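Key idea: predict the complex, not the pieces.
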Amino acid sequence: MTETKKIPRDICQIQCVHPEAVDRVKDKMPSQDILMNLADFFKVFGDHTRIRILTALYREELCVCDLVEVLGMNQSAVSHQLRVLRGAKVVKFRKQGKMVYYSLDDDHVRELLRDGMDHIQEERG
Amino acid sequence: MTETKKIPRDICQIQCVHPEAVDRVKDKMPSQDILMNLADFFKVFGDHTRIRILTALYREELCVCDLVEVLGMNQSAVSHQLRVLRGAKVVKFRKQGKMVYYSLDDDHVRELLRDGMDHIQEERG
DNA sequence: TCATTATATGAACACTTGTGCATATAATCA
DNA sequence: TGATTATATGCACAAGTGTTCATATAATGA
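Result:
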């Protein structure tokens, strides 16, 4: 029986930190609130279906049933995701009769998609 | 009893599509494979803890226990998330003795973080 | 008015994901 | 060699998320 004396590893007693660096960084960190928003914003791009919708709208404005056709998914799933995209102000829409046309909200969204694409293309060599 | 004649809504019989637009868009869609990678890439940014790590590293290189200090989280949680960030090539690292120093991988990551930040700042007015 | 059509949404369920615990690994020092 | 320390990781579980089904809403035309 080794009876390893159960080190209770005092959580806040870490020795190796660079206190100056930690202070500098802590000082410049945006508020938790902003960082939460930022994460939530990126989360919107982090789903296969939503990325497909955005990539489709990257080319041109489309109505919901066009998107249903392009994605080959059922209308409910598409609408649910459009709601998320709307909520994050990533797409905008206009109504015309019964139909609703969606398009990318602004150029930030375009840039983000392009930057992301660039990154993964590089990764793939 | 209204006996609503249970319309079996033939999935592929949507009338309203703009077939030309749909064709144009379908034609230019990247492969499912690429879009999956893209979504997975953004997914990495879509988490509060990981965004906090990236924001910290935005300023300067830090070792794991610095990050533990900055985030006020336990070491295991931080390591788990660093693994995800490494896997997506969003951070790079160098070993020095027992310690491992992390930093942002490249300028795409910086740009993405900045673009994202710009977007949410605008949203907030 | 009623039927039809395009889109939106609530509920339920399967699946994913982040965290903490315990422990492993690997580097340093005595 | 054994003890200590910095970091990594497997497992389990709670919490979150995407899809489908059923249905609601709203606009159009008969």
